[in-house]
Design a protein that fits this description.
The chain is mainly α. Helix content is about 70%, strand content about 0%. The chain contains 15 helices and no strands. The chain starts with a helix and ends in an 11-residue tail after the last helix. About 40% of the residues are buried.
Length: about 350
Amino acid sequence: MTLNDVLKRENNNFDLLRLIAAAAVIVGHAAVISGDRGAHDPVMDLMHFEYSGSLAVKFFFLLSGLVVTNSLLRNAGLGRFIAARIARVFPALLVVLLLSAYVMGPLLSTLPAGSYLSSRETLAYVSRNALLHSSYLLPGVFDNAPEHGVNGSIWTIPMEMLCYLGLAIAAGLGLTRSKIVFSLATVGVVTLLLLEPRAVAVLRMPPESVPMFTFFALGALLANWKKQVVLNPFTVLGLAIAAYLARSTPALPYLCCAAIFAAAICLSSTPLVRRLRLPGDYSYGIYLFGWPMQQLVHAALPDMGARGNWLLALPLAAGCGALSWYLVEKPCIQWGKKIGDFLPAGKAVPEPA
């Protein structure tokens, strides 16, 4: 089966993969949020160089690069693409920011409610994050917790939007009209970042963002060559062998993750997994609400360890994720499609030759 076949919605269950990845992020954050120094991360115990949260975020970026680039190349005009990305990311982000700052914050802050609500830091938390300048602290909130951040997960949102911006620029310049040109441009940018990770400082991004950009670019390249890429157990085996042969090189983490991600996408295309279709895509809401829910669990049960933290926080985040999907994300996605159709740049971007 080619990747082009897998990318057809009826041939995959990417929503389930994203849901599992969002849950893995919560598991990965539990030790830090609970302050459980003796906690064991299952992925770190197995791989020794990667923990569950980081692995899940890398998978999010690869899948995003794959699906979003495929959408742009297949049937989305540039204006529609921009409107769709904004509608997908910002409404749910704004909701979680406002709820954190003006519902959770006043209830948990050590400051008097009036002082908290009138504080510039409270407003700055919402405004800075809404403008993609990551800010994590609210005045007097979680000051005595092992981890003071109100929502440490949002650090990836600026990176995601930067990736979308890069795709939009490539499409606007006409680079997506040619497979070769688009591939050379993508590989060139990634090579620069891998050889000189400090280059991301120009984009005001931390060095830790380089693997995320790399996996997004890999997803974009796979979408670009989707008709030529064959995805089956032999592909997974080949990547696993390559990872083993590169076990003493810096390429090991990338090849190992690539093998795992290829296996996950292969599994998602099997008849059994396809039948486990979800009624909605709850993963983004779970991702956004996961960290605050874990902080609330720790605030209520400060002696609880990492396992108890994520076991309690996960269903809470899942409930918030479902509400976010039905009340915020799904309607806004529909509005984004309608708005995109009226934008002047709504002409479709043709498939690359």
